[in-house]
Amino acid sequence: MTTETTTVRHDDANLPNEKIVLRVTDLKIATNAGDEILHGVNFALSRGEILGLVGESGSGKTTAGLACMGHFREGLKFASGSVSLWPRGDDTAVEVVELDEVAVRSLRGSRIAYIPQDPALSLNPAMRVGEQIREVLDIHKFGSSEAERSERVAAVLVDVGLSGDKAYQKRWPHQLSGGQQQRIGIAMAFAMYPDVLILDEPTTGLDVSTQAVVLDTIRQMTVANNVAGLYITHDLAVIKDISDRVAVMLRGDLVEEGPVASVLEDPQHEYTKMLMSAVPDLAGRKTIGEGAAAEPESESKATHILVSAGTSKSDDSTESGDGAATSANAPLLQVKDVALAYGKAQILDGINLTLEPGDCTLLLGESGSGKTTLSRCVAGLNDDYSGTVALRGAELARSTRKRTNEQRVGIQYVFQSPFSSLNPRRSIGQSLTVPLEMSGDGTAATRKAQVEEALDSVRLGRSFYHRRPGDLSGGERQRAAIARALVNQPSVLVCDEITSALDVSVQASIIGLLRTLRKEHDLAMLFVTHNIALSRHIADNLAVLNKGTIVDYGPTAEVLENPKHEYTRTLIADVPKF
């Protein structure tokens, strides 16, 4: 099946250009069954410039990017069109999609280089980083001597802002931070002085400060080496900082293309306008995810049952399940003097914060700042801490296993990857039933009803009960993971980087959903993220962590507009802005 779509062009990108090094013309890719995935895509890459290829998951952007390397994922095949490459110093084009396996392998890593999304997965944990860069040079027979290759390893490490000495080259990947690992990946890609660089979401999962360094490294290396870059992403804010041109993809079609400023400042296609409206802005001038608050498809009792989640146990002083007194005057959640160290490494250093029903506090910080460690202490998933975590005035045991059933139910955790909480072999309904079975409440019939109500509350609907995680999109899986956390009617929801890998439009829908859940169910949230741009769209309060210490804490607007700590000011300055 094919579709006819006219690309909105802000200028004619197909005019002759001596800088063009790779041109994709009318590219069509299909499944082995014959269903078309790309419907005639056209774009060109020029030396010293970066083309940003944006779109949601499933739009075909990664498929198009991999085709530039002559690679097609399992189940897909080249249908028609061309990918023409003009190697440096050669006037004759190479048709990449027509090369045999030996020729295309020779091309990859030498003339066309690739940087993947996850640097940890692209590096061999059993090889020292210098050896991994050297391996690229050995495979493609760089230079004329061992000394020349060793010199190139050291030089390219320095080029990406790392040390080129022997001591650094002998480090293992696990001894490097995420940003350093990604820069090793960049060094490997640039080692052979390629003509084309394909970058597939290389900063997804990185905090804003690390992302800024990596983007700056990519930009500098691209210009300095006169390389043509294709930057694949769903983050339009990043595209503004890194790209010269941008192409927007939707369901296998390229729908809009042109200079970055033209497309972002004056988008013409409705899909581009929708993507831009979903990008969170630090100033909070717009409200993202407004459409997520639609009513469930089917009538249910979800609101009536779940609305008591944040308040049902706090009207008066009562006895908790283990006999500990709770108090109506105490905060819903109180973290007091929480500290944690591994040997000489101080991970958390005297953390204090409170959370009231219906409130959301955003824990912000770079990788390694301690925000996830703190959230796991609150949930009882990490029991090595000192200090106290109290729910409605009752101090909680450090380990979730030693907490009462009522306390375990009261604080629920939503993981970054929904696969961490959804069994791929079970239906969504079966996975959501497990927490109810563990708590020992109700009958099979009442549990099924509660699961269906939870599915309704996250705007999936009870029709998802019999579906499996593999049948769902990324956004649907994350909604199911949230439903799993809600099924036991918690008072506090701990959300750990739950939108970091989602497209901006899907992220917007999840943020809108969480706002609705807070309003409808008086649900308190601890929202862990490195994406400071989300703060105004989800949080009442903002706690900024740096090396295990809260350096700024207060109402979100106050912290953003009058940050007291230099670290907070640096984070704000590093946020990509339109």
TrEMBL record:
Pfam families associated with the record: ABC_tran (PF00005), oligo_HPY (PF08352)
Protein family membership: Belongs to the ABC transporter superfamily.
Keywords, sorted A to Z: ATP-binding, Nucleotide-binding, Transport
SMART domains tied to this protein: AAA (SM00382)
Name this polypeptide is given: Peptide/nickel transport system ATP-binding protein
Taxonomic superkingdom: Bacteria
Annotated GO MF terms: ATP binding; ATP hydrolysis activity
GO biological process, one term: peptide transport
Occurrences of domain ABC transporter (ranges): 22-276, 333-572
InterPro entries reported for this sequence: AAA+_ATPase (IPR003593), ABC_transp_ATP-bind (IPR050319), ABC_transporter-like_ATP-bd (IPR003439), ABC_transporter-like_CS (IPR017871), Oligopep_ABC_C (IPR013563), P-loop_NTPase (IPR027417)
PROSITE patterns noted in UniProt: ABC_TRANSPORTER_1, ABC_TRANSPORTER_2
CDD domains membership: ABC_NikE_OppD_transporters (cd03257)
Organism: Brevibacterium aurantiacum
